[in-house]
Amino acid sequence: MSVPEPVPAIEVRDVWRRFPQRRTSLRGGRPAPVDALAGVSLTVPRGGRFGIVGESGSGKSTLLRILAGLDRPTSGTVLFDGSPTGSPTGDAARGPVGRVQMVFQDPMGSLDPRMRIDAVVAEPLLAQGRRDVAEPVAAALAAVGLDADAGRRYPHQFSGGQRQRISLARAIVGDPAVLLADEAVSALDVTVRASVLALLDRLVTERGLTLVFVSHDLSVVRRVCQEVMVLRSGEVVEHGPTDRVWADPQHPYTRELLAAVPTLARSLELARDRADRQARAGSRADTRVDTRADIDHQQEERE
Ligand SMILES: Nc1ncnc2c1ncn2[C@@H]1O[C@H](COP(=O)(O)OP(=O)(O)OP(=O)(O)O)[C@@H](O)[C@H]1O
Prior knowledge:
By secondary structure, this protein is an alpha/beta fold. It has one domain: Rossmann fold (3-Layer(aba) Sandwich), CATH 3.40.50.300. It has eleven helices and ten strands.
C-alpha cells in the first residue's frame, strides 16, 4: 500500500498578479500593465524554510503579500494546508489570518509609536478574540530575549535590533504555523543582523514553523533557508536547494546577484567569528553566556 504524500503547508500554483501601470510613459501612448508576478509556482512542506531572492521590483513583496492574504492573485491558486485561499474569485477575507504572521523590514513603520510594547505584542491575540494576554505576551518577550519590563516601554526606547525582536515577539505570540519575513534583517547593521537571524532560526526550529523569507541578499537567505527561488521581473529564473544555488548558480541573473554578495557575506562571517571569540572569552563559570545570539544580543543592548 502506498503512503500518501503529506499535504504541503503552502502551495502556490501558476500565480499571476497584474497591476495597472502607475504612470504614463514619457512618449505618451497607453500605459502597459505590469505583471509583478508571471506564473509563479512553489511548494513549501510543513516546517520547511523557503527563500525568495531578487532585485528591487522583482515581485518578492507582491508574492509575500499574497501569501499573507493582504492581496489576491489576478489568476492562479494559493493553498494553505491544501485549502484554497485568496483565489481570484474567492474571498480574500477568508485568507490565512492567524495561521500566518508577517515580519517587515522596518519595525518603526510596523510598530505604532504611541502603543506600549505589551499592547503591540498583544495585537494578534486580541485579533483572535483572546482576552488573557498578559502571560503569553510576557512569554513571547522572553522568547525573543527581552525582559517583562520591556512591555511597559515604547518602540522609540529600543534599538533597531531590539525593535525587530519585538516584531518577532508579536509574530509568534499567537502560535502561528507560518512566518513570512520581508527583508526582516536588511535594515540592521551586520552584527545585529547576525543576532536577529540566529534568533529567527531558533524560533523557527523550536516552534516547528514554516518560514518564507524574502531578501535581496542570497548570503542572508543561505543562513536560514534550505530552498531558494530567484525572481526576476515576476518570473522564476532559478529554483533549488540554497547550497546548490549558492555554490553553482545556473542562471546568469543569479550569478549577477551573487557577484554583489562577497563583501556582505564576508563581513557576516567576520561578525560571527568575533561573536564566537567573545563567547569563548566570556565563558567563565559564573557567566551564562554560551551562544553567539546571547553575545550579539548583549552587544546590541550596549548600543
Ligand atoms: N500597488 C501597486 N500598483 C502598481 N504597481 C505595483 C504595485 N505593487 C507593486 N507594483 C509593481 O510590481 C512590481 C513588483 O513589485 P514588488 O514590490 O513586489 O517588488 P520587490 O521585489 O518586493 O521590490 P522591493 O524589494 O523594492 O520591495 C514592480 O514593478 C512594482 O512597481
